[in-house]
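step 4 of 6: structure.
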Amino acid sequence: MFKSKSKKDKTKEIITVRDVIQVDREILDNISSLIEIKAEKSLLNIFADLHTADIAEIINRLDTEDAKYAFSILNTEDASEVLLELDENIREKILKDITPDKISDIVDELETDDATDIVSELPEHVADHVLKTMDKEDSIEVKELLKYPEDSAGGIMSSDYVYVLNSATVKDAIKEIRKHADEYEHIYYVYVLTSEDKLIGVTSIKSLLINEPSKKVTSIMDEDLIYVTPEVDQEEVAQIMEKYDLVSIPVVDSDKVMLGRITIDDVVDVIHEEASEDMQRIAGLSEEQEQSDSFFRISRIRLPWLFVGLFGELMNALLLSNYQDMLIKFVIATFFFPVIMAVGGSSGTQAAIVMVRGFSTGDLWISESLKKLAKEFFVALLNGLVLSIVLFGITYYFFSDQLNFIIILSLSFTVVIVFATMIGAIIPIVLKKFGADPAIATGPFVTTLNDIIGLSVYLTFITIFVA
Amino acid sequence: MFKSKSKKDKTKEIITVRDVIQVDREILDNISSLIEIKAEKSLLNIFADLHTADIAEIINRLDTEDAKYAFSILNTEDASEVLLELDENIREKILKDITPDKISDIVDELETDDATDIVSELPEHVADHVLKTMDKEDSIEVKELLKYPEDSAGGIMSSDYVYVLNSATVKDAIKEIRKHADEYEHIYYVYVLTSEDKLIGVTSIKSLLINEPSKKVTSIMDEDLIYVTPEVDQEEVAQIMEKYDLVSIPVVDSDKVMLGRITIDDVVDVIHEEASEDMQRIAGLSEEQEQSDSFFRISRIRLPWLFVGLFGELMNALLLSNYQDMLIKFVIATFFFPVIMAVGGSSGTQAAIVMVRGFSTGDLWISESLKKLAKEFFVALLNGLVLSIVLFGITYYFFSDQLNFIIILSLSFTVVIVFATMIGAIIPIVLKKFGADPAIATGPFVTTLNDIIGLSVYLTFITIFVA
């Protein structure tokens, strides 16, 4: 359906087909016109055929007032699901206009991990009101979950899991699933706990189905547990779940007392978030940019790192001004500033991104860093030599009367590439060792540093050997 | 366990604890020593306590001969799981040394989608032999799956799904699950098909558990289907599954005939693969670099885009050489080459990465491109003006005797930033429109282009207004 239907068909589908509809520009325009004339009934008619994720995608693209109106006509259940999928800045604007009581109703519909995310974004007095008026049991759990940092296992776990005691039978476990089936969206496993809430095993719904109802769960449960403690970073949780192909992972404290569980859908979001974060660092964005951001906000997100580049390269300008007399005599040296900067910079970025990627996928262990650096050194030397020989050949063709200069240019080029590669490789390791985000090393900071070091090396070589 | 235990504890765990062990340098070293003395029994003892994903992580780090030995002592079932997790180049080396008959045995253990991946990597005559000697039914399915491109929905789907006819009851569906429970690892849904194999609904294991065994599956199934056709790109599959929070998605042909299903664990791999691919483009790597790559291979992966940078910037050098006389007179102009190049380049990269990211997450529709470009233009103009004013202030402090020059420098700086941003934003859109990977725009190619255009604009301004 997503590919094969023509545009004409799609409009018809809104009315006739029960399958989920992919939203597009046309549907967005239709909805915008209907909002303008406040055609609530027709809008709800369209929304009824859309998945809540698509309604959110539409609302993300509307003007603030239209977005508020569209959200306001949704029933509480749909509103809760749409809210989760909205861009953060749109969500903030919409929530500002809703009464705390309505927010409570919406939050009551959510699983505890999602409810916690929403509550944590609210202004304190609104959050307090919501926590007081929402379902009591949920409120206690949300307060508990609010204690953990947002990007830790505790911050993304949910308290909505199905468990049985170790004395239970398969039949008991199935009964327990039935009890929670409506309330919990994702049930893949039943956890087996001792009377002190300690996790001792796990069994899949699949194995409950294929085993005799009278069997003890302890006889069919899997005891090779893979779990995390609440302080584990969400990126590590994602790595573990990906590595072991898990759809759900339990979170326990140091005594193995069960605290919650994390499901794969949240981890898919984490993987995306972390990839976005890496990209953001590489692009030199100070915060994540969302599609619905205003151009003032985009400007504010992008300027800080552009200033880092500006100030760094102004230092470079002052450095160069010290070589003024030499540069007037050897103006040819200035022609190769771009070569030195760009190729040096690219070598450094290549090394940095490979390191950062290795750390963030878990494929690279910090204990292997030295071995890796040795490899980087040889790669840099080899590439530096190859590139320098080509550089020499080409420049000799164009500037054959300046043999001395181009020999020194080519030699310093190798040194620059080795320096830049090693800086690109070392900085992520150092950042990682000190607990900082290694991805910072891929951004404008290191490129600027490499420009300064590269030009210094180049000009020093020329001063010593040519000028 | 992953965080709280000390190193000492970990070594003990190998023998005493049944929980899964995280591998580290120490375990790797122990295993290396045991391989050296071919201590097969002790090795198998350690492997028995490791998850197959961890055994693969160890083997990825061994020398080729050691890796082959470690793999050879595994039983067929473990070998099949380990094989899937190995780096591609290690897998290739290991498979080269194994008889086609043993490969058949290993492939027989795999689900059809994984079996297809392995067979597609084999040399043709080995693949033919494996397809002939493996389980007949699986062989037919694998041959069918081999027809689809590797990165399409067809290429990542599996034929191992549970289905019932529309006449079936809940009890029948449970019976069907029992029949396949051993063979299929991931069972979350049962698909409901007509006698012509057309997909008409889906029901989760959870709803089978909570409904009466005598009920018809058609009365409990979900008819709001979300599915893909086999030619859909795997990145789009990942976007759809992420958007709608799916753990499994059916693949059907244009007549809705069921062909297979894709599970979330494969999609998590796709998300990682696509993020790695984007990173690889940004870093200017010609292929993906794996941790186990030799330094010759790494050099070969990195050199092509470094050459693009080298040749592009050499064109820049020739361009600059045309301005030789002017540059000797105004050597101060050369001091600001780094500022022009670096800040222009960063502005372009910021715009390009935001566009590429928007396309790859599906947050940005191609139909919104013009609106986005208008926004980019205003962002660029605003940032250009802000940065130029700061540039003017600082340079005026240091070079106040060159007022004419620094006015022109600041003016051209704004123009360069606007140009670079727009090029960074437009090229991904053009690439996307023509079906190419927009991420190419984030690499050295566009940076080099921006350097050439930036310096041209700058020098043209100086020639006209100052020199």
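step 5 of 6: annotate
 - Chain A touches chain B through 128 residues (CB under 8 Å).
 - The mean pLDDT of chain A is 88.
step 6 of 6: archive
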